[in-house]
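Progress against Task 2.4 (sequence-to-structure conversion) is shown through the following example record, which the project officer requested during the mid-term review.
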Amino acid sequence: MKVELEADKCVASGQCVVAAMEVFDQDDDGIAILLTEEVGDDRLGDVEEAVAVCPAAAIRLVRQ
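Structure tokens generated for the chain above:
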């Protein structure tokens, strides 16, 4: 699965980092950063949680 992040929508809540710290980080302003665009089954659940809890709906999963 591919992770897409619309950083311009990010409101810097940090929920994605809490849900999937191996996939997301935050810059100095708190805006989400993708650490990797590709996720395997081992991290899929965490990223699905990040998608669900993002208050700005800035994250999505795309099947390849």
